[in-house]
Write a sequence for this structure.
């Protein structure tokens, strides 16, 4: 295995790509060699690497949230969360506020031009590479070549390991009846020709399935999943009415199955860095943008908590506020979709139990649960609580209404 001590010194800051684009062999090599290298600071996003559940003592690990296996690291007190909008990550790398001396990337083999594609994982990596002193690459023969961002010259890499391994698939849960009920309500808020943004998981998958009857949808999102692939294949997603990038699905990452990873090179998909996908100036040009995001809880004024639950950090700011704010201010609609309960607890709450506001109430047009839609745009505080209580789980509505009455005394 590659000797990383020739490239990483004690005290260096190391970052690596996330999700299916994570350079797992290089990360594992770093974890193995840390006792010899010494203390290192690191930054990563969503990870499927179970070894990062308990990082070695030499590794000070940070992230923009607690996603995937980082949730366990957070519970163990081994993760520092940087509460930043995803659109700000490029600036944080440029200002050296995130670990960025050495980047570990997974790329495609070099093409005829001598450049390697970041493939399915451009997102923050596409910005971080510009500011990194040293780049080390896993050249994976199964990483597809994608378009939208210039590749990295092969000679830019200080060291390379060559692999031929499947890209990790995202954990998958099939949508259930509750997800499908929420999706049906969300579909009512999306018009033909809108440009949508949404995330990953069973509920977003159900929402995409629920949009199968729409026409000429566009996609501009931080990530795409198998559901987007299917809508493109069905002719539902055409991007024909997008104000910018017409005809293209614009994203930073693909997170899903091998079918998705193998399909993206044959689709009209442009993979672009976070400095483009999440940039306020770019999003402001999408007048029909519909942002569809999820949450852990929503309070009776419409404030959204998507980071902390039961005292544990489970999510992140991510791109939610970037897209919700743009959709509410200059786009078509900002939607927060969530199940009405988590276990036996209501997710519509009098006050945020996590005590952390991820998205401001002014940036939320509608909240959707399986029980309906609470339309909040232009709705005064005196009415918001009643509308939100009406879409809470029936067993919790009376308590929420009592909380409203007590609050007005």
């Amino acid at each position: 295995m590659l000797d990383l001590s020739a490239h990483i010194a004690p005290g260096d800051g190391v970052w690596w790509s996330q999700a299916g684009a994570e350079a797992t062999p290089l990360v594992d090599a770093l974890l193995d060699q840390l006792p010899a290298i010494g203390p290192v600071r690191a930054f990563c996003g969503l990870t499927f690497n179970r070894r990062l559940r308990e990082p070695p003592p030499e590794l000070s690990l940070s992230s923009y949230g607690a996603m995937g296996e980082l949730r366990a690291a957070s519970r163990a007190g081994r993760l520092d969360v940087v509460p930043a909008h995803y659109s700000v990550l490029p600036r944080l790398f440029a200002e050296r506020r995130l670990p960025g001396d050495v980047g570990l990337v997974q790329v495609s083999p070099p093409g005829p031009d001598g450049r390697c594609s970041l493939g399915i994982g451009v997102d923050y990596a596409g910005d971080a590479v510009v500011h990194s002193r040293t780049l080390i690459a896993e050249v994976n023969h199964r990483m597809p070549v994608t378009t939208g961002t210039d590749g990295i010259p092969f000679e830019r890499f200080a060291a390379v390991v060559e692999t031929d391994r499947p890209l990790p698939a995202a954990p998958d849960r099939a949508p259930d009846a509750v997800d499908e009920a929420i999706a049906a309500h969300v579909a009512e808020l999306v018009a033909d020709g809108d440009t949508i943004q949404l995330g990953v998981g069973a509920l977003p998958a159900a929402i995409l399935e629920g949009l199968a009857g729409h026409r000429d949808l566009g996609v501009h999102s931080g990530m795409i999943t198998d559901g987007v692939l299917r809508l493109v294949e069905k002719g539902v997603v055409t991007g024909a009415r997008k104000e910018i990038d017409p005809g293209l699905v614009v994203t930073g990452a693909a997170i899903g199955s091998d079918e998705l990873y193998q399909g993206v090179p044959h689709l009209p998909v442009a993979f672009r860095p976070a400095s483009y996908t999440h940039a306020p100036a770019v999003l402001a040009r999408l007048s029909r943008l519909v942002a569809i995001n999820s949450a852990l809880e929503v309070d009776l004024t419409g404030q959204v908590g998507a980071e902390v639950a039961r005292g544990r950090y489970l999510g992140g700011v991510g791109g939610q506020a970037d897209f919700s704010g743009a959709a509410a201010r200059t786009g078509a609609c900002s939607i927060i979709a969530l199940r009405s309960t988590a276990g036996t607890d209501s997710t519509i709450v009098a006050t945020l139990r996590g005590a952390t506001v991820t998205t401001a109430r002014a940036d939320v047009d509608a909240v959707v649960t399986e029980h309906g839609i609470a339309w909040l745009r232009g709705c005064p505080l005196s009415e918001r609580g009643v509308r939100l209580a009406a879409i809470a789980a029936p067993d919790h509505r009376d308590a929420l209404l009592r909380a409203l009455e007590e609050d007005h005394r």
